[in-house]
């Protein structure tokens, strides 16, 4: 059985730590991989409700079904890593249509 947020395309609330500080902000993210290594590092795509997306970012068509409160954008250009322990709560999942669009953007970003 999977732990919280370890399935790709799960939407979770996660702690984003500020550099050189113990402070953090809780943000929604899309899980983009499986936990890896002894520290259980997970690739995540931040989600934002702010306008001004980069061309590679994905406007989520079915954001409500993903458990989000506002129209949102997957900030693919800001793919990041976090620790599994910093995934706090699973709130939904990305549907197949938005998954396909995110996959295309990830392939472009990562030159796959």
Helix/strand layout:
Blueprint (H helix, E strand, L loop, with lengths): L9 E8 L6 E8 L9 E8 L9 E2 L13 E2 L5 E4 L3 E7 L2 H15 L2
Antiparallel strand pairs: 1-2, 1-7, 2-3, 3-5, 3-6, 4-5
Q: Characterize the overall form.
A: globular
Average pLDDT over all residues: 89
Strand content: 25-35%
Number of domains: 1
CATH class: Mainly Beta
Major beta-sheet overview: 7 strands, antiparallel
Kindly name the structural category: mainly beta
Please provide the ordered H/E string of secondary-structure elements: EEEEEEEH
Count of distinct strands: 7
Q: How helix-rich are the residues, as a percent range?
A: 10-25%
3D architecture notes:
The termini are far apart. Helix content is 13%, strand content 35%. It has 112 residues and is mainly β. The chain has 1 helix and 7 strands, in the order E-E-E-E-E-E-E-H. The protein is globular and about 35 Å long. Strands 1, 2, 3, 4, 5, 6 and 7 form a 7-stranded antiparallel β-sheet that branches. The protein has one helix at 96-110, and strands at 10-17, 24-31, 41-48, 58-59, 73-74, 80-83, 87-93. The protein has one domain: SH3 type barrels (Roll).
Which terms would index this structure?
single chain, 112 residues, SH3 type barrels, seven-stranded antiparallel sheet, 1 helix, globular
């Amino acid at each position: 059985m999977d732990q919280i947020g370890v399935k790709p395309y799960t939407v979770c609330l996660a702690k984003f730590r500020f550099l050189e500080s113990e402070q953090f902000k809780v943000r929604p993210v899309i899980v983009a991989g499986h936990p890896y290594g002894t520290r259980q590092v997970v690739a995540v795509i931040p989600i934002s409700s702010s306008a001004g997306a980069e061309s590679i970012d994905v406007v989520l068509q079915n954001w409500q079904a993903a458990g989000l409160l506002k129209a949102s954008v997957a900030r693919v250009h800001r793919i990041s890593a976090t620790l599994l322990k910093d995934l706090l709560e699973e709130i939904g999942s990305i549907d197949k249509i938005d998954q396909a669009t995110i996959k295309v953007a990830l392939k472009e970003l990562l030159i796959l």
